[in-house]
Amino acid sequence: MNILVLGGTDEARRLAAALVARPGTHVVSSLAGRVRDPKLPVGEVHEGGFGGPDGLAAWLAERRVDVVVDATHPFAARMTASAVEATGRTGLPLLILRRPGWRQGPGDDWRWVPSLAAAAELLPSLGERVFLTTGRRSLPVFAGLDGQWFLARSVDPPEPPAPRRLEVLLSRGPFTVEGELALMREHRVEVLVTKDSGGEMTTAKLVAARELGLPVVIVRRPALRAGVPAVVTVEAALAWLDSATGAGTPG
Ligand code: NAP
């Protein structure tokens, strides 16, 4: 059984680790290859894109892949679209493993927006000092906001264009509530901007914002593709693979 796991997330790494241990299963995990020092999954790794749906379809045929699991980040919409198209064309089963989005709770002051551009539009009405956690490639969207000061946290350094009043914090999660509280207090943050990534590893900033009574601008995630099976946990993905393909049984 040959399985391609489209990765770049904690769930993808955990899925690969579980699959590598299964007799009769060969798993390749793929990464976009953009982070300088990525956390690598166990097992074989393919780094770099496939060249769109055509390239992916050719790669799947060449590598005799039996099933594809798209365990990419909820905002990796192009990769997901490419997986849907390539598997549709080649007739291969595709499962989407997507962690649930965050749920607003009592005390949260969340402002849902449909895009990063809408987040940028809303910011001037919410505060001057902004904690931006939407990734280094989102900075150009905020570059025109001269009235705001930004603390931008990312794994790798951002490239221009970027906001004029900017402090960059290079750091990789998971983060603690205590750490996030200290960071937001130190920088006198007035508003937090995040994508609805979901997951446990990055919730601390939301808890900290709630404790400090700060508004959070939260970008909605792209909708899941109708008709494509989707699960929210690694365990459910393993169960789906068992029932759909017989993965886990030798041979
Ligand atoms: P994207 O916009 O959907 O993808 C752009 C292109 O990058 C894809 O068309 C594909 O190139 C290549 N690519 C993306 N993910 C890939 C993967 N897992 N394996 C091989 N090629 C991949 O994706 P993105 O938002 O830039 O995210 C890139 C990677 O970072 C993903 O693996 C994702 O899981 C991870 N990540 C993303 C975010 C986020 O906020 N977007 C956050 C954390 C982690 P080809 O068309 O050439 O195949």
Distinctive features:
six-stranded parallel sheet; binds NADP nicotinamide-adenine-dinucleotide phosphate; single chain; 29% helix; 251 residues; elongated; alpha/beta
Brief write-up:
The protein has 7 helices and 12 strands. The chain is an alpha/beta fold and 251 residues long.
Which blocks of ≥5 consecutive residues have pLDDT under 50? none
Strand tally is 12
Determine the fraction of residues in helical runs and give it as a percent range.
Answer: 25-40%
Shape descriptor reads elongated
Gyration radius, in Å: 20 Å
Our estimate of the beta-strand percent is 15-25%
Strand order of the largest sheet: 3-2-1-4-5-12
Small molecules held by this entry? NADP nicotinamide-adenine-dinucleotide phosphate
Q: Output the number of helix runs.
A: 7
SS-based class:
alpha/beta
Q: In angstroms, what separates the terminal alpha carbons? A: 7 Å
The biggest beta sheet reads: 6 strands, parallel
Query: What is the averaged pLDDT score?
Result: 95
What is the N-to-C order of secondary-structure elements (H for helix, E for strand)? EHEEHEHEEHEEEHEHEEH
